[in-house]
Amino acid sequence: MEKFLTATSTFIEKSTDTKYFLLFASFLILTDIALLNTINISILQLTYTDITNKLAIGAVLVYMALFLFYVSILMPVVSYVLFEFIKFAPLRFLGIFSDVNEGKFSKEGYISIDNLKNEAVLENNSVKLNLYLKQESKNNDELKLYQLAFTCLITGCLSFILVPNGTSTLLGSIFTYALTSENSLNILVSISMLLLMGYCIFLGIGGYCLYRFTDRYVYLMNNKHVNP
Fold it and tell me: Which UniProt keywords apply (predicted)?
């Protein structure tokens, strides 16, 4: 009982972190795609009998390895390739994703975190070093969120592309329910899906592909440093 309560408490704590939700959502959607293309069963119809009779342990382990490869290696590559195309987009489109670093390069009092790190080392200044480490840790944590938002966005797109004929994916079923159901719950589902799509597009493209939401400057009171 104690282990169950501990596991439940841990799950609840992680459920409040958006990163875990995006990772789990990507896993469910990609698993649904894999099941439809291998045993022709959606994850919504998957039963314990299907798991024991149609899924081999080795295949599951291979799939887990491929999922980790998909998230940690393939998505950064896809992001880089997509960036090479997006950077030629009209400025009006790019303007949707405001750059948090714009204007800070020449603004008095601001210093780039790279210069801050160099000054901290040269001056043996623990205050500046701690400030750098704090900002770098914050940036890394936010970048993980942006990466998972991008992963969820791409995975969602794949669920509509890699679907076998005559079948419906997890996302397809949710959208169908939201558009055809006549009860009041479909309004909540529709709004939730639209918010999730907008969230993933905004953070995935703006934060991860374009790298516009990562703050590379910190403010130092009375700082006269000029960024090179």
Answer: Membrane, Transmembrane, Transmembrane helix
